[in-house]
Specification:
Layout: E1 3-7, H1 10-13, E2 17-21, E3 25-28, E4 34-37, E5 44-48, E6 52-55, H2 56-68, E7 75-78, E8 98-102, E9 109-111, E10 113-118, E11 121-126, E12 136-139, E13 142-143, E14 150-153, E15 158-161, E16 170-174, E17 179-183, E18 191-194, E19 197-200, E20 204-207
Parallel strand pairs: 1-7
Antiparallel strand pairs: 2-5, 3-4, 5-20, 6-19, 7-17, 8-16, 9-15, 10-11, 12-13, 12-16, 14-15, 17-20, 18-19
Length: 210
């Protein structure tokens, strides 16, 4: 799958709407009970990046980005302003934010994940597009140093350790991340509402699997 490791301008995505989408198949039985199943292990996020009234320079930036991705053909990074950190939006990233694994003295490469909890239930989301330079890692509560103790592949969200974490040691990480997406249209419709302003009312964007 073609993918450009470049982020949609964050200043233009601010104010967009969107979020996770699930696919649930529901069969209603003759007795009125239901059987529910999902073919998706993970949610797929959708966004509407329609900007409303913006400057003509903003519209030029949007069109240039769209043309460089060739419409739906090439994926890119998207900052979801409602969910882009391993911690709460009001907090600062810490190396203890998310439990990503427990050491076994063998595994030396781990996938970044973010866990969403509600009561006693939880869902672990793989993070495949961390922001380069934002990842903080700790093992057994001790902060590690990037480039010496571990390296991060920001293209796939994997952390590789110089030495496998010790048996039973909690491996935790904090990070910022983007969502891998593509345009969900091959046409961007814009209008000029005044001499210095224009409008792009609908920019559908959908998450892609990487």
């Amino acid at each position: 799958m073609a993918f450009h490791d470049v982020r949609f301008p964050a200043s233009l995505s601010f104010g967009s709407v969107g979020g996770p989408e699930r696919r649930t198949e529901i069969v209603t039985l003759a007795n009125g009970f239901e059987e529910r199943n999902s073919p998706w292990a993970h949610a797929r996020r959708r966004y509407d990046g329609g900007m409303g009234l913006r400057s003509l320079d903003d519209l030029e930036t949007l069109i240039a980005f769209f043309e460089a991705r060739q419409g739906q053909l090439i994926g890119f990074r998207w900052k979801d302003w409602s969910d882009y950190k391993s911690c709460a939006p009001s907090q600062d990233i810490s190396c203890t934010d998310q439990l990503i694994a427990v050491g076994d003295e063998v595994t030396d490469s781990l996938q970044l994940t973010k866990t969403y909890r509600s009561g006693e239930f939880s869902y672990a989301r793989p993070i495949t597009k961390p922001v380069d330079g934002s990842v903080r890692v700790s093992v057994g509560g001790d902060p590690l140093q990037e480039g010496i103790d571990y390296t991060v592949d920001a293209a796939i969200g994997q952390v590789s350790f110089a030495h496998p974490p010790n048996q039973g040691a909690e491996v935790r990480a904090g990070f910022e991340f983007d969502v891998p997406v593509r345009f969900d249209t091959d046409a961007i419709m814009t209008s000029v509402s005044s001499f210095q302003a224009g409008e792009a009312p609908n920019i559908p964007i959908v998450e892609v699997r990487v």
